Amino acid sequence: xxxxxxxxxxxxxxxxxxxxxxxxxxxxxxxxxxxxxxxxxxxxxxxxxxxxxxxxxxxxxxxxxxxxxxxxxxxxxxxxxxxxxxxxxxxxxxxxxxxxxxxxxxxxxxxxxxxxxxxxxxxxxxxxxxxxxxxxxxxxxxxxxxxxxxxxxxxxxxxxxxxxxxxxxxxxxxxxxxxxxxxxxxxxxxxxxxxxxxxxxxxxxxxxxxxxxxxxxxxxxxxxxxxxxxxxxxxxxxxxxxxxxxxxxxxxxxxxxxxxxxxxxxxxxxxxxxxxxxxxxxxxxxxxxxxxxxxxxxxxxxxxxxxxxxxxxxxxxxxxxxxxxxxxxxxxxxxxxxxxxxxxxxxxxxxxxxxxxxxxxxxxxxxxxxxxxxxxxxxxxxxxxxxxxxxxxxxxxxxxxxxxxxxxxxxxxxxxxxxxxxxxxxxxxxxxxxxxxxxxxxxxxxxxxxxxxxxxxxxxxxxxxxxxxxxxxxxxxxxxxxxxxxxxxxxxxxxxxxxxxxxxxxxxxxxxxxxxxxxxxxxxxxxxxxxxxxxxxxxxxxxxxxxxxxxxxxxxxxxxxxxxxxxxxxxxxxxxxxxxxxxxxxxxxxxxxxxxxxxxxxxxxxxxxxxxxxxxxxxxxxxxxxxxxxxxxxxxxxxxxxxxxxxxxxxxxxxxxxxxxxxxxxxxxxxxxxxxxxxxxxxxxxxxxx
Amino acid sequence: xxxxxxxxxxxxxxxxxxxxxxxxxxxxxxxxxxxxxxxxxxxxxxxxxxxxxxxxxxxxxxxxxxxxxxxxxxxxxxxxxxxxxxxxxxxxxxxxxxxxxxxxxxxxxxxxxxxxxxxxxxxxxxxxxxxxxxxxxxxxxxxxxxxxxxxxxxxxxxxxxxxxxxxxxxxxxxxxxxxxxxxxxxxxxxxxxxxxxxxxxxxxxxxxxxxxxxxxxxxxxxxxxxxxxxxxxxxxxxxxxxxxxxxxxxxxxxxxxxxxxxxxxxxxxxxxxxxxxxxxxxxxxxxxxxxxxxxxxxxxxxxxxxxxxxxxxxxxxxxxxxxxxxx
Lengths: 690, 327
Known about the structure:
The complex is a heterodimer of chains A (690) and B (327).
Chain A: H1 3-26, H2 32-45, H3 48-54, H4 61-80, H5 84-102, H6 106-123, H7 131-158, H8 172-197, E1 223-224, E2 229-230, E3 237-247, E4 260-266, E5 268-269, E6 273-275, E7 282-286, E8 293-294, E9 303-310, E10 324-328, E11 333-337, E12 342-343, E13 352-357, H9 378-384, H10 392-401, H11 408-422, E14 424-425, E15 428-429, H12 436-444, E16 446-447, H13 449-462, E17 467-474, E18 477-479, E19 484-488, E20 492-500, E21 504-508, H14 513-517, H15 524-541, H16 545-566, H17 577-605, H18 610-621, H19 632-639, H20 648-661, H21 667-686
Parallel strand pairs in A: 14-16
Antiparallel strand pairs in A: 1-6, 2-15, 3-9, 3-19, 4-17, 5-6, 7-11, 8-10, 9-13, 10-13, 11-12, 17-20, 18-19, 20-21
Chain B: H1 3-10, E1 14-18, H2 20-39, H3 42-66, E2 69-74, E3 79-80, E4 84-93, E5 100-107, E6 110-117, E7 122-130, E8 135-138, E9 143-146, E10 153-157, E11 164-168, E12 188-204, H4 216-222, E13 226-234, E14 238-243, H5 250-270, E15 274-278, E16 281-286, H6 288-300, E17 320-325
Parallel strand pairs in B: 3-11, 14-15, 14-17
Antiparallel strand pairs in B: 1-10, 2-4, 4-7, 5-6, 5-9, 8-11, 9-10, 12-13, 15-16
């Protein structure tokens, strides 16, 4: 192996090693201390050859180290009882270090490449980070380069020299890297295709974490008033909502007004806390996946489909735009109640699911939906107008604000407007010993969204209007790169649902708008990176059999619609002119390229050898050009009259042998030809033109 | 269509088998695929897809490298037993614009490697081979193979250059005994250039002239290289007669055939009309290089088992005879 290729192989090996160690770190299989220690050991192994020469040979040192390593692993298994994945990762690290410190041959490079690949394998069950994609691609590029480099070096070493002495591995090294990049690109494309088409027959489609998933805290399944503290402005993204389609809707789905993601509704208030009452009817739905679960009966309006990608929140509630009609996820059962709350016990099934909702559009008073009539059951009314004993000032205030209202919904709107206009929003909460709602409405006159929602719901109930408090998330920030809403922890929100006869439960949000929704827009780079993460998560990490079926179906539909369109010539007129021009340009380019290739191949078949062409160019610069019909030998004879052009004679002889005798020049002949070319060029330079 | 032809058509153009690395890759892909199916982890699916993609890309690139490669044999006109013969193969890339990479020509244990062959380029690969015995011999054949690009699989084309060649008997320089004029020789000068013994002319040295013919005295006088031209000599005919059939002693037979071949080469070189007769062998008199090959071919293919009765001498032509006893 030549020195440069050996060095290149070493560089490739260490790049792969870096990649593998980074994968282990990403998966949490080695900590920061381990990473630093390992980095130092890896750096030391770069100089293993000079190190080995300096250190005296210790008999059986290698065997002792290997034995120690095995003992350490056994102890780790027996005493520390760590997850097998950690032990597997440590074994990989140990073998890697042994290989790096003892590497001698190219086979060791292969073994190291395999070990680093299995480091990626070890990290794969414990990470979903998009950084894994970067590591994967860099492994592919460097690994391809290493494999090709090793292949070429092996072949050159094993080859028998030809009798004509053609040295192996000449010139290949120059474009080896470019070639490996092209091979990497091809491999990425094929990997993508295979990844998409390999049938998903596994039981779970989500990663397992030995140490438990990091749970994002912030969303609560209760509304408690009177506590003190400060609401966090945590910008961590907890949910990404991709609006897949808006069936029957006229506007773009992202333009649907007042979108929010409903989590849990509460019907019982004890004066300090909103909870779900014990009388709530709960039922468990069983369904064979992948059919969706029916949650509520549709009212016949436009249906918005949302793909929701949720971070682990520590809550069993499923989020979606109200009113949730259907839910599709990877679980066999869901639990629903008569508050419209949906819960799923399987944690992995909550991380990615699809919800179809019927958003509230237009004035609810105009609706006359038979299924949304006010129930006549007094128990139902009592449930949603339940109130604890409280100050009469609140009811008095509610009556005063709603004086002159035409209907309950008008009263609710007046109260909502009054609250958001008259009271202030604050994130700083102070503990109150007395009635927190009275304190909020009459003393402090400021609070967070929970106070606003609780106040509205209570005031509505004092007027006999059924209402309930809802916890969930505001719409979040629109990501134009990935076309989804990024919902952050700080978007956690509370609002109110009021029952409107003929329209059902209608959302009202009394929290001052600017306080709730104003959030600093993310930088473009951050949005782009988040879109990349979303794509990674959506198309790779959570890719499923359902997605495969949907992809096949969409391809089938596209093929059908295309073929149907092709059969209707009139539709061709509707094709944009720009697209037609682009197609015409592509066709013209292909035709021109084919013609150029044909000409080139014809030219190539009659082409003169390169060295003779160079000689002719040198002579042409000094005014010596072959005449029409003049043979090479005649030209050499004519040019040879000029003493400086004498080197043309041997070049002509070589030219005749190569061109007409199909001879291949031996290395000695090539050397003679090169010398003659140099002489000719030097003589031509020395002589002035003319 | 014969069965052989059908079998030849059904035989795949290329064979492919995994190398040791290839087996590792296949095994790892299978194991990862199993793990992915078992866990449903998409990242494992991704890594298994990567290994499978490497195999696919390897197949595509190696096929591309092998496609439109033309291999043609370059064989010497004469191959002598016991003497290294220079065999060769021209490998040409018939593709219009894409190069072929990392192609190996295997012939027996030999591996001749071509790292890169540009579009339309042709390379001559040569190797020496020594054939131990005279006669009709099958060439070892060559096979174009490649492990490009990752060394995971060996892709091989159909074996080529498996034809037969005739290996002439061992030819040695004839000694003084061999140089003796045959019995009854009536060699006389023909007053034309030839390869006899008498001087015909002196002229300037030209490329390709035998350096042994340089006339040093005239060279010194003229200040430029001068060579001798010799007169052609002829005889009415010289006949090598193979005596016996050589069935009893194979070693003796081979030595005798070698002697006959050496004599034939020498005598044809001197320009005599040479005839060869023996058991089952009858090559009429003739001159020149082509005739020499006819004589050597007859000697190479001599088989004592199928040797017939000796051919009758062609009349009393006055041809001198050299007897070579086959034993």
